[in-house]
C-alpha cells in the first residue's frame, strides 16, 4: 500500500461553481483518449465546464483535474484484492463528490471494473437518469464484451444512457439490448492523431513494459534480460528506447534498470509526450500501445507476465479468445507473436527481435498487417458523428 497515494476526505469543488461534463478514467490510455474528446468539446463550446477524475492529459486539454487516478491502476484478481481497501475508499469519495456537485453528464472512459460499479451505484441512489435522477451516463470505449464478460452488456443496459464504441463491429455486440450504441471512430484512426512511432530500419528498438507500476515491475526485467541476450550477438551501438508516462512508472523503470548496469548506456528512458519516434522493432506489453505500434507497421511481439494466481484464474474465466494483444484479436491470428508467462524467455524474445530486424519478410508482413488494421478501424462513423458530437447529444439542457 505504500506505493498508493493518499485519498483526500473531500475532493475539490467545481472551479466554476458547477460541472457540465465529468470524465472518469483510471488509466493513462483512457486519460489520453479522453483528453482529445475534451479538447474537441471545448473547441465546439468554450463555455463548457469540464472536470475529471483522470490524469494530466485531461488537465492539459482544459478539464479541472480533481484527482489523478492514472498512476496506480492495477489489473488482476490478486492485485485488486491486495488493494481492496484503497479502491473501496476511492469509490466512496468519488460517489460522494458526484452526489454533492451533480454534474449534468458523466462520461466514463474505459476502466469498466470501477466505472460500471459507479454507474450502478448512481442508479441505486437515484442520481442517474436510469435511477430517476437528472445525470446522463455515457460510456466511451466500450468494454471488450466481444472478448470476455459478455454479460456486462445487460448491466450496462440497465444503468447507462449510451455507449460510444471505437470499433465498428462492437455495435452489433449490443443488438440484443436496448442501449443506444454508436460507433464514434477509433482514436488512432483520427487523421489528426499522430501515432507514437513509425517504422525505420536503422532506428532504435522500443521496449514498452506498460503504464501500470506493478505490471512494469514484472515485465521490464524480462525485456531487459532479452535485450542483453540480443546485444551479445549484435554490433556495439544498438540502442533501445523505453517510453514512460512519468512517475511513478519512471521510478520503477530506474529501479529495474539498476539491476542491469551493463545495459544503462544502451537503454534510454524517454517521456511519452506525444512526439513520434522511429523504431525498427518493439517488445511491448498487451496494452493500447501494442495496437498503436501495429497500426504503424513496426514489427514486434507482445510480452506479458501476470501474478501466477491472476494468470491461473484469468485463463479459466476468459473463454473464446485466443490472443491477448488487441491487434491479434482483431486480425484473428498471431500477427505479433505473444510470449506469455513462462514463454517470455530471454532467448525467445531476443530471437524474435533479431527476426524483426533481419528478415525482410517479417517487416513486409508487419506493413501488410498495418494496412489491414487501418482499414478495420477506419469504418465510416454514423452521420460523421465524433465522440464529442455524441456526448453533446446526451448533455441535458440548461445549467
Residue stretches low in confidence (pLDDT < 50, at least 5 long) are none
Q: Output the helix-strand order.
A: EHEHEHHEHEHEEEEHEHEEEHEHHEHHH
- Beta content: 15-25%
CATH superfamily of the largest domain: Glycogen Phosphorylase B
What is the helix content? 25-40%
- The strands making up the biggest β-sheet line up spatially as 3-2-1-4-5-6-7
CATH class call of the largest domain: Alpha Beta
Note down, in words, how this protein is organized.
This protein is α/β, with parallel strands linked by helices and 399 residues long. It has two domains: 21-185 and 379-393, Glycogen Phosphorylase B (Rossmann fold), CATH 3.40.50.2000; 197-377, 3-Layer(aba) Sandwich (Rossmann fold). It is 40% helix and 16% strand. The protein contains 14 helices and 15 strands. It has helices at residues 28-44, 56-61, 77-82, 84-101, 112-124, 152-159, 213-232, 249-257, 288-295, 308-317, 326-331, 346-358, 360-377, 387-393; strands spanning 21-25, 50-54, 64-68, 105-109, 136-140, 162-165, 181-183, 197-199, 205-208, 240-244, 267-271, 277-279, 281-284, 300-304, 338-340. The strands form three sheets. A seven-stranded parallel beta sheet has the order 3-2-1-4-5-6-7, sandwiched between helices. It has a six-stranded parallel beta sheet with strand order 11-10-9-13-14-15, sandwiched between helices. α5 packs across α6. The chain is globular.
Amino acid at each position: 500500500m505504500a506505493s498508493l497515494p493518499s485519498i483526500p476526505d473531500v475532493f475539490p469543488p467545481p472551479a466554476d461553481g458547477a460541472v457540465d461534463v465529468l470524465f472518469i478514467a483510471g488509466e493513462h490510455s483512457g486519460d489520453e483518449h479522453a483528453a482529445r474528446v475534451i479538447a474537441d468539446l471545448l473547441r465546439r463550446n468554450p463555455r463548457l465546464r469540464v472536470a475529471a477524475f483522470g490524469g494530466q492529459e485531461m488537465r492539459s486539454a482544459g478539464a479541472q483535474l480533481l484527482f489523478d487516478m492514472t498512476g496506480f491502476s492495477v489489473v488482476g484478481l490478486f492485485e485488486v484484492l491486495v488493494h481492496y481497501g484503497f479502491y473501496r475508499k476511492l469509490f466512496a469519495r468519488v460517489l460522494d463528490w458526484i452526489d454533492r456537485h451533480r454534474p449534468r453528464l458523466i462520461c466514463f472512459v474505459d476502466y469498466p471494473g470501477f466505472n460500471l460499479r459507479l454507474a450502478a451505484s448512481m442508479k441505486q441512489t437515484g442520481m442517474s437518469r436510469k435511477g430517476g435522477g437528472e445525470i446522463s451516463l455515457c460510456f466511451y470505449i466500450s468494454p471488450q464484451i466481444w472478448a470476455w464478460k459478455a454479460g456486462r452488456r445487460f448491466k450496462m443496459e440497465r444503468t447507462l444512457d449510451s455507449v460510444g464504441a471505437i470499433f465498428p463491429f462492437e455495435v452489433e455486440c449490443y443488438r440484443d439490448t436496448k442501449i443506444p450504441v454508436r460507433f464514434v471512430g477509433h482514436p488512432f484512426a483520427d487523421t489528426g492523431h499522430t501515432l507514437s512511432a513509425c517504422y525505420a530500419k536503422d532506428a532504435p528498438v522500443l521496449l514498452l513494459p506498460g503504464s501500470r507500476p506493478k505490471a512494469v515491475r514484472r515485465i521490464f526485467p524480462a525485456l531487459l534480460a532479452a535485450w542483453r541476450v540480443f546485444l551479445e550477438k549484435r554490433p556495439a551501438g544498438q540502442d533501445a528506447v523505453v517510453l514512460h508516462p512519468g512517475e511513478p512508472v519512471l521510478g520503477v523503470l530506474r529501479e529495474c534498470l539498476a539491476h542491469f548496469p551493463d545495459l544503462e548506456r544502451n537503454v534510454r528512458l524517454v517521456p511519452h509526450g506525444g512526439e513520434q519516434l522511429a523504431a525498427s522493432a518493439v517488445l511491448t506489453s498487451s496494452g493500447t500501445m501494442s495496437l498503436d505500434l501495429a497500426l504503424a507497421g513496426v514489427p514486434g511481439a507482445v510480452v506479458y507476465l501476470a501474478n501466477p494466481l491472476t494468470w491461473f484464474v484469468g485463463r479459466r474465466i476468459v473463454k473464446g479468445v485466443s490472443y491477448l494483444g488487441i491487434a491479434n484479436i482483431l486480425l484473428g491470428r498471431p500477427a505479433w507473436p505473444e510470449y506469455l508467462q513462462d514463454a517470455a524467455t530471454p532467448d525467445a524474445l531476443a530471437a524474435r527481435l533479431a527476426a524483426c530486424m533481419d528478415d525482410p519478410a517479417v517487416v513486409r508482413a508487419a506493413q501488410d498487417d498495418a494496412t489491414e488494421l487501418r482499414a478495420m478501424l477506419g469504418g465510416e462513423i454514423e452521420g460523421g458523428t465524433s465522440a464529442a458530437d455524441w456526448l453533446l447529444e446526451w448533455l441535458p439542457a440548461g445549467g
